[in-house]
Amino acid sequence: MSDVNQETIEQSLVHITVFTSILGLLFMVVVFLIQYRYRKHRRLLNQIPRARMRNTKKDIPETALRHIYSGFQEASRIHDQILQFAQTQQKPGWHKSEWNYKRVVADSPFILEQLAKRKDPSLARLDSQSVRAYMQFLLKKEPELNPKLCKYFVEMYERARFSEDEFTERDFINFLQNFAILKKFFEIE
């Protein structure tokens, strides 16, 4: 009888070992499949361009969403206040149409260069060439240019670009009148 008990115990142990081995193997397969799906899902998400991936209210915590919306409202309120202030103030160096005199004068050599290149492509400015050197180059190539006008143009450009002085409306109008004369010289008829 003890032999029979011994034999049934051994068979039971074999059955338990086989059963636990199968369960362990099944558990490992399930873990592997879950990991595979997770990695595949992450890889596919990373391939989506961020511009196309929409954030919904579920994606962001409610407190963070409230903070973002309050920031937008605050920015809108500040923007409105700035616009109201800008309409009541006349700032020196700014035109009512929001032109910055210094910025317009500082950009004028690029406009002049484009006009000169359109008239004659050999009048293009070198990258390393200063505005003063470019005007000297134009005076050599185009002797009909007024040297005083070119000198005034360079002085006003340097004042706008490098000086702390503010431009008045009168300075700006004088510059535009002189620039119009330079511009006419390079316009193609």
UniProtKB/TrEMBL annotation:
InterPro entries: C1orf43. Keywords: Golgi apparatus, Membrane, Mitochondrion, Transmembrane, Transmembrane helix. The chain crosses the membrane at residues 12-34. Signal peptide: none annotated. Its main location: Golgi. It is found in: Golgi apparatus; Membrane; Mitochondrion. Pfam families: NICE-3. GO terms for cellular component: Golgi apparatus; membrane; mitochondrion. It is a single-pass membrane protein. General regulator of phagocytosis. Required to uptake Gram negative bacterium by macrophages. This is Nice-3. The lineage of its organism: Eukaryota, Metamonada, Anaeramoebidae, Anaeramoeba.
